[in-house]
Backbone:
C-alpha cells in the first residue's frame, strides 16, 4: 500500500472509531432526552405553530419528513399509501441493482478477488465476507482497499478512485456531525447554560412549558437561585 493510500486508510479507521464512539454516546443521550421530554412531543401542540416552532415528524418506513403529524387516513387511503410505498421500495431496489451493474469493471474485478479470499468456504471469515459485500454495495472503496493490503492484492489507485475515497470519508464525517448537531447531543454534552437552551427549545417546538418534575436536579429552580431557568438568559 503506497503512502497516500495508507494516509487515507488511517484517516478512515480513525473516523470509523470516532463514529462508533459518537454513536454509542448519541443513543445514550437520546434515551435520556426522551425520558425527560418525549411526553411533550407526544402532546398536541398548543396554538398555531410557526415554521420555526414546528416539531419534525419522520416516517421511518418511507423517509417522509413532515412539520406536523400526518392526518388520519381511511382504510382505503392507507391501503393505497402502502401500495405506493411498496412500489417505491421496489423501484429503489431495481435502481440499486442497475447501479451495481454500472460499477467500473476494475472495481467489480477487485470485489470478486477479495470475495474469493474472504469467503468462508475458502478459509475466510463470514464477518469479513459480509463486510466486503456491504462495502461493494455501498461503494465503500476504502474498506475494499483495506483488504487488498491484507491479502496482498495488486490494485492501482487512480484519480477516479481518489474521488470515491474522499466521498467515503466525507459521508462518515457527515454522519458524525449529524449526530453532534442534534438537541439530544447538546443535552448530553452541554453545560448548565446549554442544557437550559435545550429546555427552552423543547418548549418552542412543543408549545408546552417543561414541568419542574421532568428536569434533572441541576436545572430545577432552587430557592437560592430563582432565575435558573430565566428565559432572558
Residues:
Amino acid at each position: 500500500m503506497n503512502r497516500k493510500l495508507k494516509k487515507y486508510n488511517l484517516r478512515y479507521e480513525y473516523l470509523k472509531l470516532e463514529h462508533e464512539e459518537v454513536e454509542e454516546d448519541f443513543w445514550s443521550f437520546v434515551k435520556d432526552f426522551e425520558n425527560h421530554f418525549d411526553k411533550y412531543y407526544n402532546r398536541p401542540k398548543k396554538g398555531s405553530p410557526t415554521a420555526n416552532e414546528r416539531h419534525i415528524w419522520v416516517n421511518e418506513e418511507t423517509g417522509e419528513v413532515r412539520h406536523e403529524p400526518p392526518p388520519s387516513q381511511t382504510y382505503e387511503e392507507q391501503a393505497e399509501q402502502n401500495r405506493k410505498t411498496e412500489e417505491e421500495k421496489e423501484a429503489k431496489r431495481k435502481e440499486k441493482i442497475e447501479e451495481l451493474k454500472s460499477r467500473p469493471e476494475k472495481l467489480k474485478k477487485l470485489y470478486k478477488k477479495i470475495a474469493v479470499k474472504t469467503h468462508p468456504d475458502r478459509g475466510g471469515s463470514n464477518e469479513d465476507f459480509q463486510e466486503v459485500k456491504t462495502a461493494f454495495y455501498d461503494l465503500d472503496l476504502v474498506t475494499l482497499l483495506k483488504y487488498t493490503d491484507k491479502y496482498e492484492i495488486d490494485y492501482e489507485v487512480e484519480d477516479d478512485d481518489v474521488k470515491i475515497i474522499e466521498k467515503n470519508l466525507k459521508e462518515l464525517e457527515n454522519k458524525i456531525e449529524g449526530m453532534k448537531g442534534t438537541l439530544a447531543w447538546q443535552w448530553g454534552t452541554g453545560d448548565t447554560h446549554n442544557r437550559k437552551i435545550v429546555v427552552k427549545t423543547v418548549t418552542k417546538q412543543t408549545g408546552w412549558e417543561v414541568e419542574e418534575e421532568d428536569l434533572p436536579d441541576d436545572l430545577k429552580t432552587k430557592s437560592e437561585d430563582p432565575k435558573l431557568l430565566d428565559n432572558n438568559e
Observations:
- The first strand starts at residue 57 and ends at 58.
